[in-house]
Amino acid sequence: MPGLFDTLNLAMRSMQAQQTGVTITGQNLANANNPAYSRQRVNFQTSDPTPTQGAVLGTGVQVAGIQQIRDLLLDNQLRDEGSAGSFWTTTQGALENTQTQLGEFINGSAASANGASGTNSATSAQGLSTQLNNLFSAFQAVATDPASLAQRQNLVSQAQSLASAFNQVSSRLAGVNSNLNSSITSDVGSANQLLSDIAGLNADIARTESATGASANDLRDVRQQKLESLAKFANVATSTAADGSLTVSIGGIAMVTGTKLTDTLQTYDAGGGQLQVRAATAGTSITLTGGSIAAEIQTRDGALATLRTGLDSLASQLITQVNGVYTAGYDLNGNTGANFFTGTNASDIGVNSNLGNDPSQVQAAGIAGAKGDNAVALALARLSQTPNAALGNLTLGDAYSHLVTNLGNSLANANEQVANQDSVTSMLTQQRDSISGVSMEEELTNLMTFQKAYQASAQIVSTINLMLQTLVNMKST
Amino acid sequence: MRIAGTSYTDSLVTQLNYLTSQQFQLQGQISTGQRIQRPEDDPAGMSQALSLQADSSSAAQYAQNISTLQTSATTASNALQQLKTISDRAGEIATLADGTKTPQQLQTYATEVNQLIQEAVQVANQKNGDQYIFAGTKTDAPPFTATTDANGIVTGVTYQGNTTVSQSEIAQGTTVSVGAPGENNSGSGPRGLIADNRYGADFFNHLISLQKDLSSGNTSAIAKSDAPALGKDEDNLIYHIANNGLVQSRLEAGSTTIDNIATADQQSLTKVAGVNMTLAITQLSRAQGTYQAALQSSSVLLQMQQQVMQYL
């Protein structure tokens, strides 16, 4: 039969257990707004009973452990979706920047192009398409009034404006390319830091769990957070070892094994300053399929490269086609053989500098000494309607429109993917939060439960205390 | 389902972000009247808009071409009417100068014809702006130069222009030519205004011949050769007047067509890129209402959480 002190110990163990419950509840409430935190739960179990004659008496309660409430499947899904989400968000951002730098917008407040109706209408105010249209209109104007110096001057101005627009767009898109390369370098650095942190956390977790025999819940939370951050840069694969350490692989190459950082990511120039990623130690090139680094590489080498190449091709064909016709023409002074455009692509296209100083040198005539002849100017104007084999049998204007549409399609697709990913991530996050997140109502209710249990146990202590006093008083009397 | 505390705020933030983005987009559409502002808004629509804009730009230039050509055609028409008047008077003189007229009367006619020649040269050297309209494409120099003797009698008129004319587009693939070469005796190409051997036209030389025959009193030659020759010149002028009228009609019709095309292009652009205001405003109102409801519901949830803590 247990004595009063045994019961006192029982109450004490209960108070300690309830106090642990309050502590964990406090921990949960303190981390209620910490997205990386997984709620913890105190697991109680009855303490070892005391066998007595004729009965086995309980000794109360004890804390069996503090459990972290996590769903590994959801964790992995969220990590992978984070990778996909980051890929599309980064793609969206890069393409939005590309779209902005291209500068092809419809300005609803721009005046009507022909001014005939006197009403405002939808026109593209600043884009290359308008500049291209203006050039061919200027060729038409010269063809209609070939001896007019004013029309020739206007033609030269429009051509200079178009060339300048090509140069600026080309330069701005090169800037986007350069920024993406910088982002790749920066992201690789961040990913390497996270890999190092995870290796360090693996060591901390192994050490802590080995020493205490209990789960290092908070460290595991931090590691999971680092892993999810890493997945935003590059898609990762993981496996957990028996000692709780996490092996992290990227592109099939183990980067973190146990407590060691076995490899890191490294950028290298694959030619033309276009950075790619490889494993620094293994030296193997890595093809990433998710995360921001993959998005930066794919956008740079995909939509952006297509746009830049297309613009260069467009400018090149404009130069070739115009000069091909123009060179045979005659200016107002009877001279021939000069080129209209200089350069070879969008970055260096320019207008024959002599024309800016003296528009009479525009070679608009098909024969010498005939200032009213417009054969060449008319042929140049008609180039706007001529399909070009080098541009997929599209006219110059249609080829440009095709480039704009391609970019728009890429960005619209990215927008859709981001929206989809947001939905998926949001749902998964809610699912995980429903398991791992801290519920204020639940914790406050638990707090009340522990508090009442504590009070009840304290009441037992008081009762035993009174009983002991009674017992002591019996002896003294 | 168990709901974590952060789920409320996360969900609210996501929803508010979505609604704010929707309101921003709709507000942009309503304020600009444009459904499509960037390629991403509607790539296919953007392509259509760019194509329509190119058409609209071409139409605007064709309209300007037509306006320029109309001015030139009107100037040419005036000159042709003046040449016709001169031709009429020359033909009349050729008819009047028969055997019944005295030498003095014939000499008076000869003097008048000489003045008609000089007037005709002046008219044939008509300019539109600073361009000579009957010089072919050598528009920078007077096409006709008269040579006179010591008495001021025109003995010859030399043509210094060429036999080509420029074509101008008034619609895609449609060209017109307003001017005419002063002379074309090459046997091919555009019809000469003053002289063209295919049609027996040689106005100045025929006038000079008439003037000479009037001075010499050779009424027989006037009747037999000068008058018929001048008749051919008259026919040639009538051809050019008719052709000019036809060109002006084409320009007028072209102008109407281009205006219609420009209007249609603008309407199509508005249809493709413009916003349906009624729909957009309705959607904006709905988004604003939902936004307010979301805020209201979050406020209620916060109050509920406070109540739980007060209960403690």
Round the Cα radius of gyration of chain B to an integer and report it.
Answer: 38 Å
> Helix/strand-derived class of chain A?
alpha+beta
**Major sheet of chain B: order of its strands?**
1-2
Oligomer: heterodimer
Work out the number of β strands of chain A: 12
Helix vs. strand class of chain B: mainly alpha
Describe what is shown at a glance.
The complex is a heterodimer of chains A (477) and B (312). Chain A has 477 residues and is α+β, with helices and mostly antiparallel strands.
Describe the structure.
- The complex is a heterodimer of chains A (477) and B (312).
- With 477 residues, chain A is α+β, with helices and mostly antiparallel strands.
- Helix content of chain A is 59%, strand content 11%.
- The longest helix of chain A has 64 residues.
- Chain A is rod-shaped and about 140 Å long.
- Chain B has 312 residues and is mainly alpha-helical.
- Chain B has six helices and eight strands.
- In chain B, strands 1-2 form a two-stranded antiparallel ribbon. Chain B has a two-stranded antiparallel ribbon with strand order 3-4. Chain B has a two-stranded antiparallel ribbon with strand order 5-6.
- In chain B, helix 2 runs antiparallel to helix 3 and helix 3 runs antiparallel to helix 4.
- At the A-B interface, helix 2, helix 3, helix 8, helix 9 and helix 10 of A face helix 1, helix 2, helix 5 and helix 6 of B.
Features:
heterodimer, A: 477 residues, alpha+beta, two-stranded antiparallel ribbon, 10 helices, rod-shaped, B: 312 residues, mainly alpha, two-stranded antiparallel sheet, 6 helices
Tell me the layout of helices and strands.
The complex is a heterodimer of chains A (477) and B (312).
Chain A: H1 4-30, E1 40-46, E2 50-52, E3 55-57, E4 61-68, H2 72-102, H3 128-144, H4 149-212, H5 217-233, E5 236-240, E6 246-250, E7 253-257, E8 260-261, E9 265-269, E10 275-279, H6 291-326, E11 341-342, E12 350-351, H7 353-357, H8 375-382, H9 396-436, H10 440-476
Antiparallel strand pairs in A: 1-4, 2-3, 5-6, 6-7, 7-8, 9-10, 11-12
Chain B: H1 5-32, H2 43-96, H3 103-124, E1 127-128, E2 131-132, E3 144-148, E4 154-159, E5 168-171, E6 174-176, E7 195-196, E8 201-202, H4 203-216, H5 219-273, H6 277-311
Antiparallel strand pairs in B: 1-2, 3-4, 5-6, 7-8
